[in-house]
Amino acid sequence: MEEVKLPPPTLENLDEIVQKIVTTTEPQVKERVASCLLAEGYLRQLFDLFKVAEVEDRRDVLHTFFNLFKNVFTLNHAPLYDVLFEQYWADMIGPLEYDPDLPESESRNRHRDFLTKVKFKEIVPIKDVDALTKIHINYRISYLKDAILLRYLDDSALGTLNSTIYYNNLMIISTLEKDGQFCMDLFNKLRQLSHFGVVERAQAALEAVQQQEAELLGRSHGLGSGSQSSSSTPPPPSQAQQATSAAAAASSAAAAGDASALLTSSPISLAHQELKRKKLKKKRKSRKRRLKGMIKDRMNAFKFLQELCNIAKTLQSPTKEAFYDMLTSQDIFSVIETALGTANPRKYAWLWNSCLDILNNMVTHDCTVLRRFVGDAALMPIIRARNARRKRYREQLIQQRQRQLQRQQQQQRQ
After folding, report:
1. Which of 40, 79, 219, 391 has its CA at 20 to 30 Å from residue 203's CA atom?
2. C-beta contacts of 170-173 below 8 A and 24+ residues apart
3. Residues in a beta bridge with 108
4. Residue 359: its H or E element
5. Inter-CA distances, 244 with 41, 68, 255, 302, Å
6. pLDDT digit string (tens) for 54-109?
7. What element of type H or E holds 51?
8. 259-294, pLDDT tens digit by residue?
9. Buried b (16+ CB within 10 A) or exposed e, 199-237
């Protein structure tokens, strides 16, 4: 077979490189072309050329770069995909923004601007670096095939990308299921967040602070209106008359025992109320942030578990069975029971949807687990009553034996 080579990565050879990739149809030739792209420094030089063309705003060259990397995914070469998604993801998104088939006003989709704002939500720290890397790669592949190249990928390319996602999911679920510390931390967080009374108490504390702030604001408005009404009276004709009237008002107020009116209208009292209002405002903002954080953490935790279950149901039976066994050992049904028993279905519809989705996945896999849990819960009062009777019977036997021993000792002494 004739040796396959790609021309050196230069702007002059760009059209030739694209033509070489597009005209490749045989699987063996595709593999050789992918090996040429994976040669040391080849992809790096291509991305450096793209940066130069973007700075110079050479639209024809930028459109050629789009066609080049669009057709790279028709090679169906998994090792090449791994390198692109893991090492050159940020560089690869740039050329894919310049789609020549879009109108000029929409020629740039600003994928880089969007991806820089995306934040990875880590509910529980994942210490395994390989699993964390596979999670990021799966997100990138999904974004590429659903938001960028959906119109251009053929069935074989989609099949290769979906296979990569599948095997990454297999590795992720298997790793997390075997990580005992991760499972313990996750379910400790779920148990803590499943008790909705904690959030309700935080909500009540926030409402109490808001009420205090409203009452203080109403009193300050009352003082302000009183001062405005007093200041709206016509001014005295002279400073001497003003001093005389002020002294007369002060003496009459003191004689009447109305010292509180003088105190509340003083600048010191107004400053004190303003300081108190600022403290209440700061306290209200702090409790509001804490409440929002608790609600957000709860939603993220249950959504994360729902996503893990949705991934596990698509995997092979041994991995799926091991994952559901881990959930059962961590008493997942008690967590769901507590969460649903304390959550209003109308206010927390997302929680009911997540929990029902988790239960549906587990029942579809093995309904005996849920049946056993429900049966144990129904028999639990009977079992507790039986254990209590046995405990009382043992205590009675012990007391009876002690009395017999005491009588025997008394008889021996006599």
Report:
1. 219
2. 170/315, 170/316, 170/319, 171/130, 171/131, 171/134, 172/131, 172/134, 172/135, 172/138, 172/311, 173/308, 173/311, 173/312, 173/315, 173/319, 173/320, 173/323
3. 98
4. helix 349-365
5. 93, 93, 16, 73
6. 999 898 999 999 999 999 998 888 889 999 999 999 999 999 999 888 776 665 66
7. helix 42-56
8. 444 444 455 566 666 676 677 667 777 777 777 777
9. beebbeebeebbeebeebeeeeeeeeeeeeeeeeeeeee
**Ordered DSSP codes for 314-336:** TS-HHHHHHHHHHHHHTTHHHHH
* Residue 42 token pair: 């080849």
In single-letter form, the type of residue at position 336 comes to I
3-state helix, strand, coil in the chain (%, to 5): 80, 0, 20
Taking residue 151's Cβ as centre, other Cβ atoms within 10 Å add up to: 8
Separation between Cα atoms, residue 221 and residue 393, nearest integer Å = 71
CB 33 within 8 A of CB 6: yes
Rounded CA gap, 304 and 357, in Å?
Answer: 12
d(CA 107, CA 101): 8
Asked if residue 123 lies in contact with residue 78, where contact means CB atoms within 8 angstroms, the answer is: no
Rounded CA gap, 170 and 357, in Å?
Answer: 20
SS3 98: strand
Q: Is residue 63 within 8 Å of 104, Cβ to Cβ?
A: no
Q: Give 379's Cβ-side CA count (13 Å radius).
A: 9
Ramachandran angles phi, psi of 177, nearest 5° = -65, -30
Distance of alpha carbon 111 from alpha carbon 95, whole angstroms: 10
Residue 140 and residue 137: Cα distance in Å, rounded?
5
Best CA proximity match to 197, nearest among 285, 329, 294 = 294
Structure tokens belonging to residue 340: 């649903």
Are 65 and 13 in contact by the 8 Å Cβ rule? The answer is: no
